[in-house]
Design a protein that fits this description.
By secondary structure, the protein is α/β, with parallel strands linked by helices. It has helices spanning 3-14, 29-41, 45-49, 61-75, 82-92, 95-98, 101-109, 117-144, 151-168, 177-193, 206-212, 231-245, 259-271, 275-280, 285-294, 313-327, 350-368, 381-384, 387-390, 403-407; strands at 220-225, 250-254, 303-306, 331-335, 372-377, 410-415, 434-442, 446-455, 460-463, 475-480, 488-490. Strands 1, 2, 3, 4, 5, 6, 7, 8, 9, 10 and 11 form an 11-stranded mixed beta sheet that branches. A hairpin with a 3-residue loop joins strand 7 and strand 8 (446-455). Helix 2 (29-41) packs across helix 8 (117-144), helix 4 packs across helix 5 and helix 12 (231-245) crosses helix 13 (259-271). The longest helix has 28 residues, at 117-144. It starts with a helix and ends in a 14-residue tail after the last strand.
Length: 504
């Protein structure tokens, strides 16, 4: 089948008419009349329904045109009444279509009270959504009969459209500040009761938790690095800490590795056996015992793995809701963002698609009220720069879209100087086996740098104090995202001088 034939086929399908099944489409004509009449009688009535209704929500074409005229008047700041609406209809060239002044006056005559205007407006909006679902299902049904179309693409399109329809009905009213204050105080009290003083989920990395106060609910956290820096190893080490040490349910969406490969990495991490040994199965008798003993830590751990390839944001939304509802998942990890797609929607460029994905991830984090941690690739700008300082990642290195930086509540970079042949800092301290975590953006707190030990053989990150060869490095809080604050240092080595500079 040629491309031209496919295009022609799609055009034909788009014009499919929903078959007459002998049922009247959902409508509420009398309520439409009452709402329009109320809008022309009550001075501030439009402000109560402008977020609920749009012209296309009205079933009767005349009512749609009248509401459009009311909306035009409201946008321009002019008064809304029977006469001004009539004049606006004349200006729009729609008065003859609507009828005449008599019909408009009849709309106001039928209004007994405007007390239930918002409730009536919601009924109209619900009827419109029902009609949209009927229209959409008819379109999808027609396309399903076309064998030239890929079923997977059609399912993605269907899910995308359903997502779009559902979003139209999501409205959140402003609330008075008192209950929000109570919620904030409760969060502070809960944090005070915790031994670590964290208000969010602990990552298991002490210095990181000190800067972030734990991963916060509704936050989108981006962990970015160049290839081979250990992004997956970092989040797997963190997931292991959260699930095993703190019994926090974690979901990992692995778009790059299969679930078996991912679990093998966890086995290497927990059992302290090399990747070569795990792949080949060539273990000494004592290593088999070590495997049998330590792997018990992973059994029944609240870690949920999904290795759906080329995952779309719409699939993720559905899966994430189910995981939160059925397994009480408290944190979602995505490996990695650039491998996701927004199937079912058309974009002018990959950058626009990635922008939509990052916005959707932030929206999902807010909806589920959990932190979402997404790994991201960096562009080659890091490789082009020279010198020790030049190899440290920057926000401008985020790949494919500036929207990632904009949408994220926190952006962290992983930098291992050893990878670039930098074995010592300017003070001569050994950097072998160390990884720098750079918090470059933190919307609700401080930015800064901290150091972790990276055990390459076990693809595992650890606190420096947990390592047998603990180093004299501290973590450093530089400033908040919005304003300068005094520099502080936090660390595990009490003998280290607090104001000593970091290696870079």
């Amino acid at each position: 089948m040629t491309t031209d034939k496919r295009k022609n086929s799609k055009k034909i399908i788009e014009t499919i008419v929903i078959p007459d099944i002998g049922k009247v489409q959902p409508q509420a004509l009398e309520i439409e009349k009452i709402v329009l009449g109320a809008l022309m009688l009550e001075k501030d009535a439009y402000s109560n329904v402008n977020e609920i209704l749009r012209p296309e929500c009205f079933y009767d074409k005349k009512h749609e045109l009248i509401f459009e005229a009311i909306m035009d008047l409201a946008v321009s700041g002019r008064p809304i009444d029977m006469l001004t609406v009539t004049e606006q209809l004349k200006k729009n060239g729609n008065l003859k279509t609507v009828g005449d002044l008599l019909y408009i006056s009849e709309l106001t005559d039928n209004v007994a009270s405007t007390a239930h205007l918002e409730y009536h407006a919601k009924i109209i909006a619900q009827k419109f959504l029902s009609r949209e679902l009927i229209r959409f299902s008819g379109l999808i049904q027609g396309k399903a009969f076309d064998e030239t179309l890929d079923v997977e693409d059609l399912m993605q399109e269907a899910e995308a459209k359903l997502f779009e329809i559902s979003q139209r009905n999501i409205k959140k009213d402003a609330v008075q500040i008192n209950p929000v204050i109570n919620e904030a105080i409760k969060a502070i009290q809960n944090a005070a009761q915790k031994k670590e003083g964290l208000s969010g989920l602990s990552s298991g990395f002490m210095d990181l938790d000190k800067i972030t106060s734990g991963w916060q609910n509704s936050d989108l956290i981006i962990i970015a690095a160049r290839p081979a820096m250990g992004k997956t190893a970092f989040v797997l080490s963190m997931a292991k800490n959260m699930a095993i040490n703190f019994k926090t349910s974690v979901a990992i969406f692995s778009l790059e590795m299969s679930n078996v490969q991912l679990v093998n990495r966890l086995i290497i991490n927990v059992c302290e056996l090399s990747g070569e040994q795990i792949k080949s199965g060539r273990l000494e008798p004592y290593e088999w015992k070590q495997l049998d003993h330590k792997i018990n830590e992973l059994y029944d751990a609240p870690i949920y793995v999904d290795d759906t390839p080329s995952l779309s944001v719409f699939e993720l939304r559905t899966k994430a809701r189910r995981l939160v509802r059925e397994h009480d998942v408290k944190c979602i990890i995505i490996d990695y963002l650039q491998l996701m797609n927004a199937s079912g929607m058309t974009y002018g460029s990959r950058e626009q698609e990635v922008s939509m994905i990052s916005r959707s991830l932030k929206g999902l984090a807010k909806e589920l009220n959990i932190p979402i941690i997404a790994l991201s690739q960096l562009n080659r700008g890091v490789e082009a720069r020279t010198g020790a300082e030049g190899k440290r990642p920057q926000l401008a290195d985020l790949r494919e879209s500036g929207a990632i930086e904009q949408d994220a509540d926190m952006v962290c970079f992983i930098h291992r100087p050893e990878y670039y042949g930098i074995k010592e800092d300017r003070d001569g301290r050994d950097l072998t086996g160390l990884a720098e975590i750079i918090i470059a953006k933190h919307r609700n707190g401080a930015v800064g740098d901290l150091w972790l030990t990276f055990k390459n053989r076990f693809v595992r990150f650890e606190n420096c104090s947990d390592s047998n060869n603990s180093r004299e490095f501290t973590s450093k809080i530089n400033k908040t995202s919005d304003s300068q604050v005094p520099t502080q240092t936090i660390g595990n080595n009490k003998d280290f001088i607090n104001d000593s500079p970091l290696p870079f």
